[in-house]
Amino acid sequence: MTEAQEPSQKRWAHLRKILERPGPFCHPEFEPSPEIMDFIVTSCKILVVGAGGLGCELLKDLALMGFKQIHVIDMDTIDLSNLNRQFLFRQKDIGQSKAKVAAEFINRRIPGCQVTPHFCKIQDYDEGFYRSFHIIVCGLDSIVARRWINGMIMSLLCYEDGVLDNSTIIPLVDGGTEGFKGNARVIVPGNSACVECTLDLYPPQVTYPLCTIANTPRLPEHCIEYVKVVMWPKENPFNAALDGDDTQHVGWIYEKSLERAAQFNITGVTYRLVQGVVKNIIPAVASTNAVIAGVCATEVFKIATSCCLPLNNYMVFNDVDGIYTYTYTAERKDNCVVCSQVPQTLLIPDATKMKLKDLIQTLCEDETYQMKNPGLTTTVGGKNKTLYISTIKSIEERTRDNLNKSLVELGLKDGSEIMVADATTPMTLVFCLKFQSSDVEMN
Amino acid sequence: MSSPAPKSPEQSEKSKKYDRQLRLWGDHGQKVLENAKICLINATALGTEILKSLALPGIGSFTIVDGEKITDEDIGTNFFIESDSIGASRAQVTTQNLLELNPDVRGDYIDETVDHVLAHSQDFFDTFSVVIATSLPEKVLMPLSRHLWEKNVPLIVCRSVGFLGYIRCQIKEHTIIEAHPDNENADLRLDNPWPALQEHLEKFDIPKLDNKERSHVPAVIILYYYLNQFKAEHGHLPKTRAEKEEIKRKIIESPHPDEHGIKHLEENFKEAIRYINTCVNPVKIPSNVQAILNDDSCINLHQTSSSFWVLCAALKEFVESENSLPLKGSLPDMAADTNSYVALQQLYQKQAQNQSEIIYRRALEIARTLGLSQESITETEAKLFCKYASQLNVIRGSCIADEYQKTGLDFTSYLEDPDSLLFHYITLRGLERFISEFNSYPGQLDDHVEPDLLKLKSIIGKLLAEWGCSQIIRDERVHEVCRYGGAELHSISAILGGCAAQEAIKLITSQYKPLNNTFIYDGITSTSASFTL
């Protein structure tokens, strides 16, 4: 961008009024000055995670709030069903990288704006990348990805003698939407509730018990789920894993679900419902994304300029009945697995009976952990020992037998430490096992 | 093993593109949306943000009325203006760039101010589904609001200044069949089952069931058995908490003990307990529905009555003869074997279908007597109407011009609440009055903030006196608005734009409940409030 193309300063006249005039509701430490606008325009570096419904809106909002050094990361490509809300994409862009198309559009429309796209997974980058931003803002539909980013930002914090080094804090602004509902929050790492502190806010995904879908189906969803989880692997109709975007695959599921429903006198299997169940589709509209991204961008602006105190710290939105918002302070969890400095302990009621698979089940199902595929290692007699890792085939095969061994059989003792890696966090979490004596248990 | 070639229904490109929203307002909602015509007055950043969230989901068409030429400030706030278009018509440029969002949408513009259009062709606005206005001066708002009120065209007025936002919906009458509430209770009719249901329910003698049979019987049947038992003993259905507890205890006691003498309560029996509280209420006509049935529009039908009111008249007759609303017809999922559940479900569906047919046929007769077209009421609409009869809604709004001319607005209760955001409404009304009087925003120029603060304070003081309000607005509130100097922050406009667009969609589709009637957004605290003024 050459200077000749740079439009006049008048372009930001509106923002300048906010940043160059004192006001009664400003942040106590706010000092109005033209330098703030200069900081926004020249050096403040923002990362937008996700270039979907919220991401497109965030890029536009941030670019028009004066930010120029914007990076966007998204591994997805554009699909026809995105076009009802992801307004930076057109029919001709289908199949292209969301991050790249979005960045090009913004850079073309807003002179001087330099959006840098990253067409990859968030896990492809390490601390060095994430540490280079002043503020990170998330517009994700995946809870696992959100938790991973949260974990990454928490892992950047440095404590010296138990005191947090404030220069290592990167504020995180996070938005989420579902139909006409949405939420926005501000996380100041080490100071306010993090994603893991409030894991209970995410409702568990609806699942149907296998016995219901196999033996006593009642709903069309039960029939579809049966075809998906039982019949597909058994019949393997296309010699491929089920792909919700492949019309042949979804067509097959639809056909078989109709047959199964007819067999049980169940009505209501439609193609749209089949798609919804197979792909776990969440309804989405342009308006809710616009609102939540607007709230998030306003918070990024407040944090970057200190012009007002940021949202403290959670807002919910719902416009099913009128327009409703509610703002409250989500509390930090004293012993949060990710953001507290408290060593984690796992209570083991009976180490002779508890098998490794039970321990893994606890890590996956307990509301505080909600892990996806935990890999466990430990040290026994000063040596590293892999207990179980599911994500690497050769190790999985080698450690599979451990699943049915009790913790005692595996050589674990009261006070042993186990190291846990999981898709939900970039860090390795350390848990100290605390065996409860069987006497206590009997009482 | 060969698998048959899939014969899945071909999905149109449109249904694929709009899939995520069709799951919310359905194909019928989408169809109405695609026939809607929107007028936007003033293509400010807020204005184009609203149209963006209407063009993307596929409204039929829009028309922009804006006589402004593009300035540097527009480029810094409005996404639908390119940087090389300074001096060009704002209506033209934003129309082009908004049209580019969605090829299904048509759009045109009038490069004239709204005053001009209103003065020369007032009926121009009459054919729109919704008129949306941003940054409208008071002197234009008054006649426009009055005119659209008379023509029964919904009007949404919005303003975005600094961290503040305001949306006001003006709707004369709005009727809603599909309100889509977040929670709704099951409609089971266990207190007064129709003969076919009663016959079915009475086939089951719960204590005689063996363990396998117990695990298959749906909660509805279990609950009916114990309700009936209670009724036989007490002569009435349980009303009090204690009486419901009694039924609950009986259900808990019902399992056959295992070999250790322990009773394990099955999932379906636990479900029966959960239904006691929500479903054992004698069938009543909810007061909101009763009010609609007693409404003058329901009693005195005429040739311009909408299908909604004709259906209400048919419903009224039904309610008077049956003393209940038509059955919803849906049975929630409950633990049971397939046959028991499906048999029960079919009973509910059949009864609902019979009742909705009665109401549909009666509505057609009423329409014929009135001389209304038979096509004005469809069977699909009648079915939805009956299904959601307990959630029917009628909103009657107020005219903005009346609100602005009203004296004696009573804000006392609001202003005594320190958390109430109503003071923003008052400062924004003051701001509008300021703009009319001085033809600029307070604080528009840097050295005017202080003097304008005094002027705005005096205007607000006068307004409060006009309304007979003894409260005062704190100086800081007035100062804050002057400090904005009319600045429009894009992110605040984006928030309001999303909200206002969704209100327009609600008004067009008659689904979900719209704002009635004033919404205030405070971006400093990220809080909001709604008021009926």
UniProtKB/TrEMBL annotation, chain A:
It catalyses: ATP + [NEDD8 protein] + [E1 NEDD8-activating enzyme]-L-cysteine = AMP + diphosphate + [E1 NEDD8-activating enzyme]-S-[NEDD8 protein]-yl-L-cysteine. Residues 348-436 form the E2 binding domain. One of its GO terms (biological process) is protein neddylation. Its EC number is 6.2.1.64. SUPFAM superfamilies: Activating enzymes of the ubiquitin-like proteins. The active site is at 211 (glycyl thioester intermediate). Keywords: ATP-binding, Ligase, Nucleotide-binding, Ubl conjugation pathway. Pfam families: E2_bind, ThiF. One of its GO terms (molecular function) is NEDD8 activating enzyme activity. One of its GO terms (cellular component) is cytoplasm. PROSITE patterns: UBIQUITIN_ACTIVAT_2 (PS00865). Pathway: Protein modification; protein neddylation. The keyword Nucleotide-binding applies. Catalytic subunit of the dimeric E1 enzyme, which activates NEDD8. Belongs to the ubiquitin-activating E1 family. UBA3 subfamily. This is NEDD8-activating enzyme E1 catalytic subunit.
Automatic annotation (TrEMBL), chain B:
The keyword Protease does not apply. SUPFAM superfamilies: Activating enzymes of the ubiquitin-like proteins. InterPro entries: APP-BP1, ThiF/MoeB/HesA, ThiF_NAD_FAD-bd, Ubiquitin-activating_enz. Residues 18-529 form the THIF-type NAD/FAD binding fold domain. It comes from the Eukaryota. Coiled coil: none annotated. Pathway: Protein modification; protein neddylation. Residues 10-20 have a biased composition (Basic and acidic residues). The keyword DNA repair does not apply. GO terms for cellular component: cytoplasm. Keywords: Ubl conjugation pathway. Residues 1-20 are annotated as: Disordered. Belongs to the ubiquitin-activating E1 family. ULA1 subfamily. This is NEDD8-activating enzyme E1 regulatory subunit.
